[in-house]
Each structure stands twice: as C-alpha cells, then as structure tokens.
Design goal:
2 helices; Lipocalin; 9-stranded antiparallel sheet; ILBP; 11 strands; two-stranded antiparallel ribbon
Amino acid sequence: PRGTMAFAGKYEFEGDENYDAFVQKIGLPSDKAEMGRNCKIVTEVVQNGNDFTWTQHFPGGRTTTNTFTVGKEADMETMGGKKFKATVTMEDGKLVADFPNYRHTAEICGGKLVEISTSSGVVYKRTSKKIA
C-alpha cells in the first residue's frame, strides 16, 4: 500500500542535534540526560504491516520496547521511562506519535532512521545508520 515505509532493521546511533536543549525542555533528570548523551543506542524495528515492535538497546543491557499498531491506541514508554497511552499514525511515510510533552516522528531517509522530537519549539533530531 502507498505510504507504507519499510522500517524493519537494526540501526545504530550516528549523531544528534539539540539534545541538551530538548532534554531540558522535557524535564529529563540530569543523570538520565547524561546517560543518553551521545549514547550508542541501537534501535531495532520489527514491522509486520501496520504492527510494530520498536526496541531501543542501551549500552549496559537496558532496553525499552514499545509495541504498537498504526492507528490504534497503545501503551508506550518515553525516553525518561514514563508510561502513557498514545496512538501512532502514519503521515507521508513518517510514523508520528504524540508523547505527553513532545511530538515524535520517525522516517527512513536515505537508508538511515531519522527521528525528530519537538517540544515547545525545540527540535531534537537523532540519526541512526542501518547495521542489519
């Protein structure tokens, strides 16, 4: 179907922009902010049509997994560990989720996973390269 992108794969953190301003904006505690800075997060995406399992592997063995179906409400967890409900939608080939205090989009651009989070005008961009 049109507008569906192939997200499946494993992606390793390559770089980001505006990290500090963004984590301040969303009120991430400084210890968590420090842990996440230039963190070689590996994002693993399993996609089956509109069903996704989105796992982030952090150095040291911690993982966060969000499982969702496009267009249906799902239980999600933020980068700060907060749990909430959200509905992920697909807009122009991007996955879009509204988190409690920011909007998150993900797309595949030139074979890279590009994630953009926006909170009160601060735009945080994270790019990960495909490794599998």
